[in-house]
Amino acid sequence: MSFAREGYVFIAIAAVLAAAALATALARRSWPIWLLAFVLTLLTLWVAYFFRDPERLGDRGDGLVIAPADGRVVMITDVTEPVFFRGPARRVSIFMNVFDVHVNRYPVSGTVRYVHYNPGKFLNAAAEKSSLENEQRSVGIVMTRDRRVLVRQIAGLIARRIVTYSREGDTAVQGERMGIIRFGSRVDVFLPMSATVRVAVGQRSTAGVTVLGAWAP
């Protein structure tokens, strides 16, 4: 199992604390300290689990939009996106809880033409208004003149760190890593109205595997 590089420091800190508690418990033979060592060991395992970064294989192709995040589809709605699409778009919102893989992946291949950071609040990421009011980073990918996709990483109640690897001019490769959000959050995917959504509200998505949408051949 591989881990996201952003998690190394957290895993190391948790492991050092667990090891120190275990050494103290062995030296003092104290049941309370043994209990603390046990709890810290469980915490270390959970932190490592949270930052896991498994390889993902699935369908690929210019006509497909692949899920950028693990989680549950909480909303599918038609919106007006004023900056990147400059018009109507279809938004698919995926909510990630603390047990989901939090590494995000490119939904399509193309060229990164838009990267924007917007500071904001830390509201419940599952709420509708979080897409507008919460801290977020947006990445716009252009495939062809008529095909483009916008990915928006949104912070949540306990998510305080959004990492985006993308820079304008970068080549986006479908299914490859584009960033990570720490500790519970949401990812919105904006599709052109010409694309057909292939998921439903309540469905689970797997980053790099689940097909969110597609264009007619």
Structure write-up:
With 217 residues, the chain is of the alpha+beta class. The chain folds into 2 domains: 5-50; 64-214, Glucose Permease (Domain IIA), CATH 2.70.70. It has helices at residues 8-28, 31-50, 130-133, and strands at 64-66, 71-81, 87-96, 103-105, 110-118, 136-144, 147-155, 162-164, 171-172, 177-181, 185-191, 196-197, 204-205, 211-214. It has an 8-stranded antiparallel beta sheet with strand order 9-5-6-7-11-3-2-13, with no helix packed on it. The chain has a 3-stranded antiparallel beta sheet with strand order 1-14-12, with no helix packed on it. Strands 4-10-8 form a 3-stranded antiparallel beta sheet, with no helix packed on it. Strand 6 (136-144) and strand 7 form a beta hairpin. The protein is elongated and about 70 Å long.
